[in-house]
Design brief:
Helix content is about 45%, strand content about 15%. The chain has about 325 residues and is of the alpha/beta class.
């Protein structure tokens, strides 16, 4: 006769088998209704654009309806929290990324979600590396020359809002180089670029789409880009690795995520579908034109990448004394 413990173990095992079967069945039938993809920033931004690219591609593959809902506010935290609190059934997804899941938690300990534990990270969507630029009047044309000048005089530098990745990236570079420039904060990247172009601030860290036309016209001088390799669209701009700082490889990236507890079968199904979307010639051409890169990751690799990025930038924020008290 079986003991109570043996009976309970048998019931638990049966439960796991049934749950696994139900999860697989759910994945096979999904989607049976409209899937909402939350973009936690305003319409027209990178998360919104990527969300619509992914929504269109998934709609074509699954023959279902996928819509993008913009839910801006608090550095992406409002929309992200909404998704974290949703049912893990695959019908509410999120365009997550550096701003909402790395930078905000790094500087604000009061963010009401854990960027790893409260989400299921599904597929990488790509990202864009920032560029270190200077005004021609500064008289420097390389990272080494900028460091030498910064050690001799107090320089100011511009990036977008405090705590954004461009800001954290600039602080990280300075920590590695042993220099300290004065950060001039802005509410957005556009105003920061304008001030560097005008020569009001001599140094800036910006994404290529913000600084591209000014670099081409000679109004800004690019010193180095924070990508793994040189970009096809900017072949003459060296990487930080080439400039002696291999640690400075980073990007403002985005991913597709969902609430914690999504079935592995559905996650793998979505991951494969998103990777197919990103491999299409039209999407690849568009992303490369925008100086974006497309890392190919399975869910486990993406989750590990998230974990490493959160730990990395949390330390940078702490070392730069950027964590909110």
């Amino acid at each position: 006769m079986k003991s109570l413990a043996q009976k309970l173990f048998g019931l638990a095992t049966t439960g796991f088998v049934i749950a696994g079967a139900l999860g697989a069945a759910h994945a096979d039938q999904w989607p049976e209704r409209t899937v909402k993809i939350v973009a936690p920033f305003a319409a027209g931004g990178s998360s919104d654009i990527l969300g619509r690219i992914v929504a269109e591609g998934l709609a074509n593959q699954f023959k279902g309806q996928f819509i993008v809902e913009n839910k801006p506010g608090n550095g992406g935290a409002i929309g992200s929290l909404q998704v974290a609190q949703s049912a893990p059934d695959g019908y509410t997804l999120l365009i997550s990324g550096v701003a909402s899941h790395v930078a905000s938690p790094a500087i604000n300990p009061n963010v009401k979600y854990d960027p790893i534990k409260d989400f299921t990270h599904i597929a990488m969507l790509g990202g864009e590396a920032s560029i270190l630029v200077v005004h021609p009047s500064l008289g420097v044309k390389s990272v080494a020359e900028l460091i030498e000048k910064a050690k001799k005089e107090q320089l100011a530098w511009a990036a977008s809002s405090v705590g954004a990745l461009a800001h954290l990236a600039g602080e990280y570079f300075q920590q590695l180089a042993g220099i300290k420039m004065r950060h001039v904060p802005y509410k957005g990247g556009s105003a920061a670029v304008v001030d560097v172009v005008a020569g009001h601030v001599p140094v800036g860290v910006f994404p290529p789409y913000s600084a591209g036309e000014y670099m081409r016209s000679g109004q800004l001088i690019p010193l180095a880009i924070m990508s793994e390799n040189r970009l096809k669209t900017l072949p003459d701009v060296p990487t930080f690795k080439e400039s002696g700082y291999p640690q400075v490889v980073m990007a403002s990236w985005f991913a597709l995520s969902g609430p914690k507890g999504m079935s592995p079968e559905l996650v793998n199904k979505l991951n494969a579908a998103v990777r197919n979307v990103l491999k299409s010639p039209q999407v690849k051409e568009r992303m490369e034109k925008d100086s974006s890169f497309l890392p190919d990751m399975d869910p486990a690799t993406l989750t590990q990448y998230y974990t490493e990025e959160v730990a990395r930038w949390r330390k940078v924020a702490q070392d730069a004394d950027l964590v909110m008290k």
